Each structure stands twice: as C-alpha cells, then as structure tokens.
Amino acid sequence: MSSPRIVFGLVPWPERQAIASALRTETVGGLVLLAAAVVALVWANTPWSGAYEAIRDFHFGIPALGLDLSLGHWTADGLLAIFFLVAGIELKRELVVGELRTPATAALPVIAAVCGMAVPAALYAATAWAGGGSLDGWAVPMATDIAFALAVLAVISTHLPAALRAFLLTLAVVDDLGAILIIAIFFTSDLNLWALGGAFAGLAVFYLLQRYRIRGWWWYVPLGIAIWALMYNGGVHATVAGVAMGLILRTTRDKGEEVSPASRVSHVMHPFSAGVAVPLFALFAAGVSISGPALAEVFTSPEPLGVVIGLVVGKVLGIFVGTYLAARFTKAELNPDLAWADVLGLSVLAGIGFTVALLIGELAFPGAAVGEHVKAAVLIASVTAAVLAGVLLRRRNTLYRRLYEEENADDDADGIPDIYQRTPAAPAGANDN
What we know:
About 70% of the residues lie in helices and about 0% in strands. The protein has 16 helices and two strands. The longest helix has about 40 residues, at about 370-410. It has a two-stranded antiparallel sheet. The chain has one domain: Up-down Bundle (Na+/H+ antiporter like fold), CATH 1.20.1530.10. The protein is mainly alpha-helical. The chain has helices at about 15-25, 25-45, 50-55, 70-95, 105-130, 145-155, 160-185, 195-210, 215-235, 240-250, 260-285, 290-300, 300-330, 340-350, 355-365, 370-410; strands spanning about 60, 65-70. The protein is globular and about 65 Å long. α8 (about 195-210) runs parallel beside α10 and α12 (about 290-300) packs across α13 (about 300-330).
C-alpha cells in the first residue's frame, strides 16, 4: 500500500526536478504568467476586488532600512530583480558567446530592436501630444515580453525555421537592454549618493569574488541582497541591481568546471523567476477594471491609446521596416532560412508587451487613474498582437510543414531526408505569401 501524500508537504525530488525543468521551457513559463494575469483580472473584477486591493497594498518590511513596502511593490522591486538577474545573464551570454559577439551577426537584430523601440515611442508621443495627454508614458510600448512571445512561438511552431526563434531571442535581449537603460536613466527618484555609492562598492566586491574564482552561495546571496537594498535606497530602480550582477557573472568555464557560474545561476534561478517572481508580479500588476467605461477609456484617452498603437502598430513598423532597410542598405543579411513573411509574423509577435511594459507603466504613472488605463491598454494590445501573430505564424507553419512532408516523401535510398542534405537556403516557396 502506497504511503499517503501530505498536502503542502515536501515535493518528492523527481517531481521537483520535473517541475523545474518544465518551468525552464518558454511554453510552460508563458502559460504560468498568462494564468496569473487571468486570475488578477478576474479577481479585480469580482465582488472580492476589495480583498485583492487590500492584499496588494498590504505593507511590511524593515522601516529602519527604508524597506517598508506594499506587497505589490515588493513584487515589482524585489522579485522582479530576479527576473532581471536572469535577463542580465542572457545578455552577457549573447555578448560573450552568442549572436551579439560579432558586429556582422549582431547588426540585423540590433537595428531591428532599436527601430522596434524608437517607432513605438514616437507613435505614443505623437498620439499623446495630439490628444493633449501626458508624454510620461513614452517608454511603455517599447518593451517586448520575451516569455509571452516565446510561449506563443513555441505553441505555434512545429516546422518554423529555428532561425526565427534565434532572431527573436537576440532581438529580445537588445530590447531588454534598452528597457534596463530607460529604467535606470529616466525612472529614478531623488538620488541618495551614499546608498548608491554603497551599491557600487558592493558590485565591485561582487566582481572581485568572480575575478578571483571565489565559490559558495553564502558569499553571493547576502551580498546580492545588500546590493539590491542599497540600490533601492539610492534612488535607482532596484531591478537594475539584478541586471548588474547578471552582467558581472562569468559566462566562461575554467578547467575542471562543468558549467560556468552564470549558467549555474541561470539554471537554478530560471524556474523561480518563471514560476514565482514574474507570475506574482503579474498577479498584482494586471488587476485592472475591465468594465465598459474603463475599456472605452483605452481607446478614447490619449495615453492608453498611444500604448495600443505603439505596441500593435509601432512594433510591426519598427522591426519589419528596420530589418528591411538594414538588409537593403547595409552589409547585414537576413538569415537565408527566413523569408520576409516570417519576419513580418515575428514583428507582430514582438507587440506582446507585458512584464516590463506594466513595470514601466507603474513607474510612469504612479498612483494615477491613467495608470490603470495604461495597464488595461498593455493587456489589450498584447492579446491583439498575440492573436494576429498566431494567425500569421500559423499560416507560415502550415507552409513549412507541407514543404517538409513533400521533401521527406522523396527521400534517397540512404534513408536520410533530403531536407537534411541540402545546403542551407530558403525552402522553395517559403517566400509565398
């Protein structure tokens, strides 16, 4: 007879490993994030919305250290720092061993990402200015939510070229870097130079520990928490501390090491980031009213309307046109496995702006009614972009699947599909629209 299972007991190790492995996949991580957002929306629009607001606004912490924050604030400044730590590691990896290590391979996604940030910001500014609204939210539609975007791509993609995912990943890394710089430069409160100096001193110690190959979590965890607290009290958004530590972590292996420190930290922290940190942030950030009047405000008020236009239209124009112009007038070349129709679908997919867009919305409109409308705009624009991208990429996936089946039907006698023996090139007909 099997032993009884204890509710909320310690999860058996094989199950824990399976859960952690699942959370490292984009599909599962994106679905958990989506579930948290749906729970927030439903909860905030029921008779129990008062309980939602009470929990979100509940304060706790250490006042003596300047850390008496609401639960929603803890998730945005605290837990989200873990998300940015993982993002910083991904950025460092791309800069050292990935697509961004050489200008030739980095040019196209970098130009696409920069245009994909500049055009949405410009469209927001034009919309807000024309409607007499505030320009404070110009940065909201600049950010792409990589977890959601990759989840949608993973669900749709069974035969889409692997180069499409690589392009999206590289583009998202540059996009994240842009968002990080914007948060650090434009969304700072009054600076406390002593606290900020302490944070930079902590980062210097963190670097020296890495430089001299000092191991042991007991060195890094307390130091990381201290750096985060000092950064927060220094007036710079605390998530920047996570990015800085991610960039410092070593991505190369020494002799005798199975994995680099950065890979080890990413492997450990990614499930917590995808399964706890980001979903909890979404739970307390996405709870907005979706009543008729509130939805009407999204399309009648200049600030939320600018966000919708920026994400749904601006991202497409910026990324697609930027990629085309770079391929047309520079030495940068589009991957031969991709067609322009694939790039169009990816450009629409990049309009999914959730985690970082909501964060910037909170920073741009703290405690203001327009902030709730901007959050609703981010949600509506993200769903719209996901649906449109799903339609476009599903069509491309059907085309690639048909080409794959046709080529496999004519395999040579050696039993190896022809598709794996030809030189890399765009599949015949892949440019069909």
